[in-house]
Design goal:
CATH topology of the largest domain in chain A: VC0802-like
Largest interface: A-B, 37 and 37 residues
Number of domains of chain A: 2
Oligomer: homodimer
Structural class of chain A: alpha/beta
Radius of gyration of chain A: 23 Å
CATH class of the largest domain in chain A: Alpha Beta
Helix content of chain A: 25-40%
CATH superfamily of the largest domain in chain A: VC0802-like
């Protein structure tokens, strides 16, 4: 008997009909002899509707009350799903994050899981029931308050429960067939990846692949949870995200995939005195704004001026905040000026095989050069190369790179409506 | 400094605008130097919408999951109200029934409060905040599950908190100006009652007055909580429901009001052997169905037949169930047949003054007789007389009785849209 954690996103639970369809699928998994724990997001657009309501009441909604409000969403979907399963003759019990033992810190809106004690979930399974757990939410012991985990929180809930319950697999259901070598809307003949390491998946997620959230992949990697990303609209095998043990030989392609991200902007700090500690000073200011910095590039200062330029990328939504923080301390740091550019695109090529394969960067830069695409920033990790280009060339860049590394498939990938949440 | 518990129903919290209006009112109460605890129902039609959703998923929704679903409603309204209050510069914190210490038994859908320990609510008040509490819901310690209190549950929550916190008054906000001597839609010149004893209010509520639920009034009476029923749409004084101490002299009119109820049906058990224990046998069967029996009348058996007829009234919704239970044991009890009549109306005249005033029944029966209205059943308590008539004569009956006892006012009462919940 296997223990399977299944996570269904809002698009798989859009209305009563969808909930009944998902219930049937869950009951089939149970009847095949598995123990099943299901993690749910809020139905369809519920979360957005609740946010709209909050906004009508006040644009200044605070963390604690906003979390109280938003957690109503999963409460509705989990209760309905439990009812639907029971109406199919299978015992089911729904649990809030708090009841399922998802203990977090007190940071409302983006709480971190600090402990998982799914005693009641385990008891429900032992009693032969299917356990339904509200995703995205937790409980802080110190304040006694309800918290939420932030974007992609339901994926994280599913992975955390899978780890705590020592599940055989954590299935993430979405409305696409799995992880692709590139976004099928940009590269129509992108191939579904059958198997990928969590390390590569992490780089793809960080580089903008939307199907899985980086936090969930990190958690899965740290706890050795196997993920299976698949569609709730068919029974196809999806993508397995695995954690090969140290030294374990994994037959894998050099390159797993290409991801693109248009959600970032670039800030350039111009005329930074080239003396020790200046970069530290700048990024201490930036860190104080809680912004998520991605790529950082510093050019070499010319001896003549003794001044350097430092560029970094960050989410567009955080641009104004960081610009203000830097400008406030312009004199202290002693730079000349700031430049802000929100017309950039980021492309990342990911693959564990590039560790042992020379020439990957050369091939990437050549492909972009031949397509006439200019590279503005470069940053590399052991299994990833990222480049920044103009936003309007990013799709073309993804296509030429995808093709240059032999990732193109023969069929055109089927795409359902939109990406999962 | 007074401690005031305020309860707002769904019609007072229909949308973002209403919530902001209510928030303003609450902040005014706080700024006048009072400690304020607010109990909320779900917004407008939320509860009905959630029930519709459940019904789409399965008509067989069970207690535990239905309670989990429905409690999402108050969660939304309380969080929004807390946000609205905070946006006015006043500290506010919302609490679920469980967080507010509303401990109940495990009977899902109609749980009884067994303990109230509002530690966190008290702490919020001590910290200068306004506490918002979800009405209608509680927590069972044995199962660790969320429960709901059933119809009128938010009123009960408010009264229970008022009792536990030793509040000075529990204000029940609704969309009418208070308790009237009769339903203003039936008797346009009905008068608002300024002051009524909880004993009388109990009789009026039991007799069909919809503004307050009987359970809340019972709880208030048992714990000596003063209720103030008033409109959330104006600042008029409403109706005070008081608990005079034993022997305390209360200046009060003989008759407080007239209530009517069209929601009941009458079952007559025909040809019951007139031997000891038969009535007990019948009502044991009825009790096993959990039905709420109201009036019971048994006629005298004629010596010739040795058979009696027993009639009783009960909510129409419970008619089929009770008929079946009786019919199943027809042979055992030995009656002839059953009659079911759902075209009855019940009128109740309530007033503590009738204890010491002879002739109230005579006056009531005379008024009905003169209006040509036939009386089918009569039952009396110390401060109430109820009669059953044909359903289509009930409004006329209310009007003539209201007039006969001098309750008619000079003005026509203002009625807002519908009764509160």
């Amino acid at each position: 008997m296997s223990l399977i954690v299944q996570k269904y996103g809002g698009s798989s639970l859009a209305d009563a009909e969808s909930i009944k369809r998902v219930a049937k699928r869950i009951v089939e998994t149970r009847k095949a002899g598995n123990e099943v724990v299901v993690v749910v997001s809020a139905m369809g657009d519920t979360t957005d509707e609740l946010l709209d309501l909050a906004n009508e009441v006040t644009p200044l909604a605070t963390g604690r009350e906003l979390d109280m409000l938003l957690t109503a969403g999963e409460r509705i979907s989990m209760a309905l799903l439990a009812m639907a399963i029971k109406s199919l003759g299978q015992e089911a019990r729904s649990y809030t994050g708090s009841q399922a033992g998802l203990i977090t810190d007190a940071k409302h809106g983006s709480a971190r899981i600090v402990d998982v004690s799914p005693t009641r979930v385990r008891a429900a399974l032992d009693g032969g029931a299917i356990a339904i757990v509200a995703g995205f939410q937790g409980f802080n012991r110190g304040t006694g308050d309800i918290t939420t985990l932030g974007r992609g929180g339901s994926d994280t809930t599913a992975v955390a429960l899978a780890a705590a319950l020592k599940a055989d697999v954590c299935e993430i259901y979405t409305d696409v067939d799995g992880i692709f070598t590139a976004d099928p809307r940009v590269v129509p003949n992108a191939r579904k990846i059958d198997r990928i390491t969590s390390e590569e998946m992490l780089e793809l997620a960080a580089a903008g692949a939307k199907v899985l959230y980086i936090r969930a992949v990190e958690y899965a990697r740290r706890h050795g949870v196997t993920l299976h990303v698949r569609s709730s609209f068919n029974n196809n095998e999806g993508t397995l995200v695995v954690n090969p043990k140290e030294g374990e030989s994994v037959e894998e392609p050099i390159i797993s995939g290409v991801a693109a991200d248009l959600s970032e902007a670039k800030i350039t700090v111009i005329g930074v005195p080239d003396v020790p500690g200046k970069a530290a000073q700048i990024f201490t200011l930036v860190a104080a704004t809680d912004a998520n910095i991605d790529m950082i590039v510093q050019n070499v200062s010319t001896a003549a001026t003794g001044l350097a330029d430092i560029s970094f990328t960050l989410p567009k939504s955080e641009g104004a905040r960081v610009l203000k923080a830097l400008d406030d301390d312009k004199r202290l740091v002693g730079f000349h000026s700031l430049q802000y550019d929100d017309q950039i695109g980021k492309l990342a090529l990911v693959g564990a095989g590039m560790r042992t394969n020379a020439g990957v960067s050369a091939k990437l830069f050549t492909a972009l050069f031949e397509a006439g695409i200019n590279i503005e920033m470069i940053s590399t990790s052991e299994i990833r190369i990222s480049v920044v280009t103009r936003a309007d060339t990013i799709n073309e860049a993804v296509r030429v790179v995808h093709s240059a590394f032999g990732l193109d498939g023969e069929e055109v990938a089927k795409v359902h409506g939109g990406t999962g949440r």
